[in-house]
Amino acid sequence: MFDFIDCKMTRECMINGFWAIDRLNAWGWLKSFAVDPKRGFMFSSDPMITSIGNMMESREAPVTISHSGASFGLTMRNLKYIADNGMETFKELVESKKNNQMNQ
Q: How far is CA 26 from CA 4, 97, 98, in A?
């Protein structure tokens, strides 16, 4: 699903996070979630964030990941982008960034 992401670690984090959001049926919640600019995802006290983090690290997850605060925050930001804009738009964004890097 995320084969357009070259970095193996980032790809696995996204697979893991996407699965967790899907499993919790939390796409609608994520779309409407207002990220506190001072706390981000990592320091959020929202119970759903805790549930998502726990699901990501569960034994049922398709990829075994032990997230750092940074990888969790980045993964959640990307998933929020997908919730708000759709997978195709996210893929186009990733591809355009790759193309820009290649042209520099």
A: 24, 28, 29
Q: What is the pLDDT along the chain (104 residues), one digit of tens a residue?
A: 899 999 999 999 999 999 999 999 999 999 999 988 888 788 888 899 999 999 999 999 998 888 888 889 899 999 999 999 999 999 999 998 777 666 65
- The angle formed by the CA atoms of residues 86, 40 and 55, to the nearest 5 degrees, is 65
Q: Where are the beta strands (DSSP E) in the chain?
A: none
For residue 39, give every residue at least 6 positions away whose Cβ sits within 8 Å of its Cβ, in sequence order, or none: 45
d(CA 1, CA 61): 15
What is the C-alpha separation between 89 and 37, in angstroms, rounded? 23
* Global model pTM greater than 0.85: yes
